[in-house]
Design brief:
single chain, 457 residues, mainly beta, Immunoglobulin-like, 5 helices, 45% strand, Blast:Phytanoyl-CoA hydroxylase-interacting protein, PHYHIP/PHYHIPL, PHYIP/PHIPL_C
Length: 457
């Protein structure tokens, strides 16, 4: 018995005529379970990576489109086809990519090819991934906690353009269009927290439209793929805190040790400017936290502060004699900075392939940064927590305790007057040999994304 030929439930015939009057006959098909409103096609000429974009009404059974002078491949071209389902929500209108197919096609006088659209997966291709461009479009993603994200093309065009935006998150791909001389607006949909996101923008000129059945544009420039991570929600930060607790409870009791000083290493020039500048007058001033550690942390680029370390060698009761961050070390008495007039917040748990780190935000109760920390971070009891706490002694004095099973980093949000600390003897400077580069990257070092201990699942 002859095998039955499987006939696709949905099928479109799209005939494309280029400027050399070659006819490209595309048979596009997909299972009927993938219901969508628009067929979006991107044709990429591999000789110069120019591209043509087509939006076609999915109810068109057969259609012929003249590409005129916009497309004339000489060797091969790449075909991307996306099935778009239009979504109208309270945050705006966009298209969800329901199915997808791509194919590399060799140019001939007559081309007939079949493209089967399949369900999208993690490895779905965004169009124009090559770094060879006809003019890279500068693109920035602005993030505002708790969950606002805005795309900004750092260019204003003299005439109106058509921006086609792709946003890939988890196993979903979304697309939306913006017309105007620039692109500067929030995403028209919510993004899940603690998720990796990829964005790409095509900037195009409109060419032709036919009775609402289709319109064709030519790409004039496009961005590289921009990657970022969405903010951790308050619940996510608490989950990260629980991962840190689980890591610490491998031992019955945390290795809490009394410490006298917090310390911080920087360059010679850094401290010379602080101590000798008429502008700074001995003050070490906070600056916005870099993107080091957890990329989705709400404190990155939002909260100003100064990093201090607490770690001491349990055999010598001294800090590491060498430093990754500079040859001059400031020691600052811990209780002067951390006392019962302060609040503590857990901010991060991460590693750089070796030792695990915990970041604790230290904020005086009267600080203006308290509201921000309380809104987004997990608050710790200053007298009872497994990382940094105060112990009340029998004579009524306080001792600062820090956990040595992890590296506890203190991010202090206020100005510190180094000159006054040196004069009043609750701080001192010391030279330390450096290892590695001897300085920290201004952008910070991201956490190890492959660690099974400190990454949220």
């Amino acid at each position: 018995m002859a095998a039955l030929k499987e006939i696709p439930s949905w099928c479109w015939s799209v005939k494309l005529e280029d400027k050399a009057q070659h006819l490209i006959d595309l048979k596009i098909s997909c299972p009927i379970c993938f219901l969508f409103d628009v067929v979006f096609i991107v044709l990429v000429d591999t000789s110069d990576f120019s591209s043509t974009n087509m939006f076609i009404n999915s109810h068109c059974g057969e259609i012929t489109i003249s590409l005129n002078s916009s497309f004339n491949p000489t060797k091969t071209f790449i075909l991307y086809v996306y099935g778009l389902k239009t979504i109208i929500s309270s945050t705006g209108q966009y298209d969800s990519v329901v199915c997808y197919g791509n194919k590399e096609i060799e140019c001939k006088e007559e081309i007939q090819t079949n493209v089967l659209l399949k369900e999208i997966k993690e490895d779905i291709h965004l169009p124009l991934l090559s770094t060879v461009t006809q003019g890279t479009l500068p693109l920035t993603v602005h993030r505002q906690p708790p969950s606002l994200y805005r795309l900004d093309v750092n260019t204003i065009f003299t005439d109106e353009k058509h921006f086609i935006v792709f946003v890939k998150v988890k196993n979903q791909l979304r697309c939306y269009n913006v017309s105007g001389r620039c692109l500067n607006k929030p995403f028209p949909f919510e993004l899940p927290s603690a998720s990796s996101v990829q964005c790409k923008v095509l900037c195009a000129c409109r060419q032709q439209r036919m009775n609402g059945r289709f319109f064709v544009t030519t790409t004039v420039s496009h961005s590289h793929v921009i990657s970022f991570k969405t903010f951790l929600s308050h619940v996510d930060t608490y989950r990260l805190y629980n991962l840190a607790i689980a890591f610490g409870t491998r031992k019955v009791y945390p290795n809490m040790r009394p410490i006298q000083y917090f310390y911080r290493n920087k360059s010679v020039e850094y401290f010379q400017i602080i101590l000798n500048s008429n502008y700074l007058k001995g003050e070490m001033r906070p600056y916005l936290k870099s993107n080091g550690g957890e990329q989705g942390s709400v404190v990155n680029g939002r909260l100003p502060g100064l990093f201090f370390s607490t770690y001491i060698d349990i055999t010598t009761n001294m800090p590491n004699p060498r430093s990754h961050y500079g040859p001059i070390r400031l020691y600052y008495k811990a209780f002067v900075m951390f006392n019962h007039q302060c609040n503590l917040y857990f901010a991060d748990f991460y590693c750089h392939y070796k030792r695990h780190h915990v970041t604790i935000i230290l904020v005086p109760k009267l600080s203006t940064h308290n509201n921000f920390c309380r809104q987004y971070l997990t608050e710790l009891n200053i007298f009872h927590n497994p990382y940094l706490c105060l112990r009340v002694e029998l004579n009524g004095t306080f001792t600062v305790l820090a956990n040595m099973d992890v590296t506890v980093e203190v991010f202090y949000t206020e100005i510190i007057n180094v000159k006054r600390a040196l004069e009043l003897k609750y701080g001192f400077l010391e030279e330390t040999p450096t290892i590695g580069k001897g300085f920290a990257k201004p952008s910070g070092t991201p956490k190890n994304p492959d660690c099974n201990i400190c990454n949220l699942k």
